[in-house]
Amino acid sequence: MHYVVATGIIIRDGKFLIVKRAPHEIAFPNRWTVPGGKLEPKDYIGNKKDTPYHWFNVLEKLLERELKEEVGLEIGNIRYLTNLAFIRPDGVPSLVISLFADHKGGDVKLCKDLTEHAWVTAEEAKRYDLIDGIREQIEEVSRRIR
Q1: Paired residues of 21 in beta bridges
Q2: Is the pTM of this model over 0.70?
Q3: CA distance 17 to 117
Q4: Average pLDDT of each block of 10 consecutive residues along the chain (146 residues)?
Q5: Helix (H) or strand (E) holding 83
Q6: Which DSSP state fits 130?
């Protein structure tokens, strides 16, 4: 077994949304990150297929669902950034696909697995205890949107 995860760097007025993980989280408790979550069968099974055998844009739909559930936001213009793999503390291998998107609507409303949020510039992000690699990803998105 392994997890497939999509995370999203959300852009609003030149700033990026970061969130703090709750202390009960298995991976990276109390650390700052960007919102996202695990791929679940409901992200495609039961939905109309785009070909007789396939569903397209599963990661984008996953990110839209997770952003709505985790932080209450609607997003658009989703783009690919990078991917990485790691082994969680519980031994489960995880593939993380990092995306970035524009804020389309809504105000931040955190789920129970997140305790704080901030909209930050790439420079301000350096002051937070971010999970490894998140700062660099935010800096890359900042360069791409300039």
Answers
A1: 114
A2: yes
A3: 7
A4: 96 98 96 97 92 96 96 98 95 97 98 98 98 97 95
A5: strand 74-87
A6: B
User: What's 135's domain CATH number?
Assistant: 3.90.79.10
Residues in the chain: 146
Alpha carbon 136 to chain centroid, angstroms: 15
Q: How far apart are the first and last CA of the chain?
A: 39
**Domain range spanning residue 126?**
3-145
Domain tally, the chain: 1
Return the sign of the alpha-carbon dihedral for residues 133, 33, 8, 62: positive
Rounded CA Rg of the chain: 15
Say whether 78 sits in a helix, a strand or coil.
strand
